[in-house]
Specification:
Layout lengths: L4 E15 L5 E8 L5 E6 L2 H9 L5 E13 L6 E14 L1
Parallel strand pairs: 3-5
Antiparallel strand pairs: 1-2, 1-4, 2-3, 4-5
Length: 93
């Protein structure tokens, strides 16, 4: 069973297109909450991916999806990374 999360954040970096192991494209961008928490937003579905690719840094968005947490050991000190697989992205005024 997976839970849903709703995150309101500001787009920090534009989306880039990557490919999954099966070759299906997805969009990935970074969004930062006002208090500083950073999320990697991953959008696979075509409609959501299109919205993610159109976003620009500074836009305020609401992201609804399934969260996951992982340890990023690529830096000199390991960090907890927060990811959300987006089912919906809404641009807020």
């Amino acid at each position: 069973m997976s839970c849903k999360a709703e995150v309101v954040a500001f787009v920090h970096s534009p989306a880039r297109t990557e490919a999954r192991f099966d070759g299906k494209p997805f969009a990935k961008l970074t969004a930062r909450e006002k208090r500083g928490r950073s999320w990697n937003v991953v959008a696979v579905a075509d409609a959501v991916r299109g919205v993610a690719m159109a976003l620009r840094p500074g836009q305020r968005v609401r992201v609804i999806g399934v969260p996951s947490f992982r340890i990023d050991e690529g830096a000199s000190t390991p960090r907890l990374r927060l990811d959300i697989r987006a089912d919906a992205i809404e641009v807020l005024a």
